[in-house]
Amino acid sequence: MYLADQRWPELGSYFESESLAFVPVGSTEQHGPHLPEATDHLIAESLAREAADRSGYLCTPTVNIGVSPHHRQFHGTMWVDAPVFREYMESLTRNLAYHGIDRVIYVNAHGGNVEHLREVGRRLRDSECLYAIEWMWDESIPELVDDLFETNGPHGGPKETAMIQHIAPELVREDKLETARDGGLTDWEMDDVRMHGARTFYDAIDNTDNGVLGDQTDATAEKGQQLFEAATEQLVDLADWLSAREFDALMPRDHVD
Ligand SMILES: [Zn+2]
Which end of the chain, C or N, has fewer beta carbons within 10 A? Predict the structure, then answer.
């Protein structure tokens, strides 16, 4: 059920029997020469809407702009500063609690949001307002992602390319897949960008000239459909698991004696 499509009296019956909501969270940022800036919020929204359709749980409108200052050198990237994002996410989540929601899944598709959504979840739980957790789609299906692609990449790589080929093929520049691969960083190892144990880079452009990593020519819409199906299943299962928990068991434990 998509919140923004309902009339308010209809939502009352949902809040009477259910207390879970999906909140899709993405970004609007460069995704190389082949993918739209909408990539992350399109992925988050379509997974959350699909999981809501299949399960009957509520899905809220999408947060389209996240924490992306590390992509700012590329045209069009939008972001808000981390403290602003945290305040905004906490505020909109507290407003869901006011209507009777007591557990939230942030359906996230942008790595830069992860630590901030975790912090917001902690604040809400520490204040015993509500239980909110962050869920990142590709981390729910790591083995499938590994099986499908030889040379992955954390940003604008084949997994995101395949997802957009499946979700919104008209927005993919198929003629730019080779350019994306050849102009970016193909062999990506975190170890290569560490210096004596320290992560030395801050911005995407420090590692890749065109903003993306991995081999995009390995992506197809069929692979995207497989990823989409598998991640949706994980999300529905997570929601069912979370819905079945007692609220008190989700709250912080008491201090030891
Ligand atoms: Zn992305």
Answer: C
Q: What is residue 105's predicted lDDT score, i.e. its pLDDT?
A: 98
Interval between CA 241 and ligand 1 midpoint (Å): 27
Q: Are strands 20-25 and 103-108 parallel, antiparallel or unpaired?
A: parallel
- How far is the centre of ligand 1, averaged over its atoms, from the C-alpha of 212 (Å)? 9
How many angstroms separate the alpha carbon of residue 246 from the centre of ligand 1? 34
| pLDDT number for residue 189 | 74
Return the beta strands (E) in the chain as ranges: 20-25, 58-59, 103-108, 131-136, 194-195, 198-199
pLDDT of residue 75: 98
Measure the N-to-C terminal CA separation of the chain; round to a whole number of Å.
45
DSSP string, 196-241: TTEE---SGGGT-SSS-BS-GGG--HHHHHHHHHHHHHHHHHHHHH
Distance 256 CA to ligand 1 centre (A): 42
Domains annotated on the chain, with CATH = 3-248 (3.40.50.10310)
In angstroms, the CA 212 to CA 205 distance is 9
CB 76 within 8 A of CB 30: yes
The pLDDT of residue 219 is 97
Cβ pair 180, 33 in contact under 8 A: yes
Ligand 1 center–CA 184 separation, angstroms: 15
pTM over 0.70: yes
Percent of the chain residues topping a pLDDT of 90: 93
Eight-class DSSP state of 194: E
Q: Kindly report the CA angle at 108 between 241 and 38, in degrees rounded to 5?
A: 145
Confidence of residue 165 (pLDDT cuts 50, 70, 90): very high
Section 167-194 average pLDDT: 90
For the chain, what percentages of helix, strand and coil (3-state, to nearest 5) are there? 55, 10, 35
